[in-house]
Design brief:
The protein is of the alpha/beta class. The chain has helices at 35-47, 66-71, 83-93, 101-115, 127-160, 162-168, 178-186, 190-194, 198-207, 214-225, 234-270, 275-279, 286-296, 306-313, 336-349, 355-365, 370-391, 397-400, 405-408, and strands at residues 4-9, 13-19, 25-32, 58-60, 78-80, 318-322, 325-329. It folds into three domains: 4-118, 2-Layer Sandwich (Nucleotidyltransferase, domain 5), CATH 3.30.420.40; 131-267; 276-408, no CATH class. The strands form two sheets. The chain has a five-stranded mixed β-sheet. It has a two-stranded antiparallel ribbon with strand order 6-7. A hairpin with a 3-residue loop joins strand 1 (4-9) and strand 2 (13-19).
Length: 409
């Protein structure tokens, strides 16, 4: 008799259900989210024939957490199912719309019994690839958090301190630069900015780590601060300055976090054997390469062909046809992190002349918009990346983007 396991995950406890070949429950158990609870689960599975040679497959609605990491040890296949998909399966067996945690666990077990081949088990990535995934996603989240804080600070300065925005507009990354944060911390209001002198501005720039052009930058900031400008009432302006100082402290911490995670991500990514292949592609640097590796992993059996990878990334178009209606458009259900990294990759590949740039311009000449042309370029380069990773070969410009025969002649 074949046994299938389903686990309904919750924050404090987990409901376990085992189903036999007929779909009837063979056992039920509620465990705590502790090591003792995990051991109880293994004992229950062992009582029903679980062994190292033939482990019982497990279906669960999440792909993260200690329970999932505990179950993935060894050869066990763990299926992380989408909760929306599980809800559709629940309606197959009951029209009363009843729902319970033990019932959901049984539904998960029955999904494996009937449609295991229609779902993909979790990838068997290496330990190094999983660590790169943790660091790359954390660095990406920290970057998004830094941008959110920057937008909040920019919006606040626009309301009462437009001279500061004018001063940082000449710098790339503007408010994220340490020089800008150091000067704003010393002069968070227009009143304090008007009292600044060249020496104090130079000191703030040196404290932020600037080495060259200190006197010229101090002179530029001083000229902007000394211009007449509209101001709020003094107490209101001081209150807004206190709010700015608070946002600056958060932005300082966010910038340090992004830099530290970037260093850790680069160190882990360069140790991976796939790094050499990925860095050979145009427009693909260390941080983008780490983000892409974090999402596709290094399990070569995860995607049967390049089409599966393209669909997973949202680069391949999707067709909706019904009767006379036929629509081909972009895919909305996708890995958003990989899709975001792919657009950055395609855009970066345009900075250098070559096959990627020519392909983009050819798509634009055919009538594609900018986003559609980038998505098409990402779709093509993703297929090339899949081939190079499978064959362990570096990127070849002439093979990836062959010249037309007419141009060769």
């Amino acid at each position: 008799m074949t046994i299938y396991c389903g686990i309904d995950w919750a924050e404090g406890h987990h409901d376990v259900a085992l189903a036999d070949d007929s779909g009837k429950p063979a056992a039920r158990l509620r465990i705590d989210d502790t090591l003792a609870g995990y051991q109880q689960l293994l004992e229950l599975l062992a009582e029903h024939g679980d062994s190292e040679a033939s482990p019982i497959p497990v279906a669960i609605e999440t792909g993260r957490g200690l329970l999932v990491a505990f179950l993935r040890q060894g050869k066990r296949q763990v299926y992380a199912l989408n909760p929306m998909s599980v809800a559709r399966y629940r309606d197959r067996h009951s029209v009363s719309r009843k729902k319970s945690d033990p019932g959901d666990a049984l539904v998960l077990a029955n999904i494996l019994r009937t449609d295991a081949d229609m779902h993909r088990p979790m990838a068997n990535d290496s330990e190094l690839a999983q660590s790169v995934a943790v660091l790359a996603r954390a660095q990406q989240d920290a970057t998004w958090n830094r941008q959110q804080l920057t937008n909040q600070l920019r919006s606040l300065l626009r309301d009462y301190y437009p001279a500061a925005l004018e001063a940082v507009s000449a710098w790339q990354n503007g408010l994220c630069r340490p020089e800008a944060r150091a000067i704003l911390a010393a002069a968070p209001t227009p009143g304090k900015a008007a009292a600044m002198n060249r020496k104090r501005l130079s000191t703030a720039l040196k404290r932020a780590g600037r080495i060259r052009g200190i006197e010229a930058e101090a002179e530029r900031w001083l000229a902007i601060f000394q211009r007449p400008q509209a101001r709020h009432l003094k107490l209101v302006e001081d209150a807004l300055g206190q709010q700015t100082v608070g946002l600056l402290r958060q932005l300082d911490a966010a910038c340090r976090t992004v830099d530290e995670l970037a260093v850790a991500t680069e160190k882990a990514f360069r140790q991976h054997p796939d790094a050499e292949v990925m860095l050979s592609f145009p427009g693909l640097g260390v941080q983008l390469g780490a983000r892409i590796l974090a999402e596709i992993g290094d399990d070569r059996s995860r995607f049967d062909d390049a089409r599966g990878l393209k669909a997973y990334a949202g680069a391949a178009p999707i067709t909706r046809a019904s009767g006379k209606h036929h629509y081909v458009g972009r895919r909305r259900v996708k890995n958003n992190r990989l899709h975001d990294a792919g657009f950055l990759w395609a855009f970066s590949a345009l900075t250098a002349p070559g096959g990627a740039n020519a392909h983009y311009r050819r798509r634009r000449a055919r009538g594609d918009f900018h986003a559609a042309a980038l998505r098409n370029l990402f779709n093509r380069m993703l297929g090339q990346l899949h081939h190079c990773l499978q064959t362990r070969t570096l990127f070849d410009e002439t093979a990836a983007f062959p010249m037309p025969l007419l141009a060769v002649a």
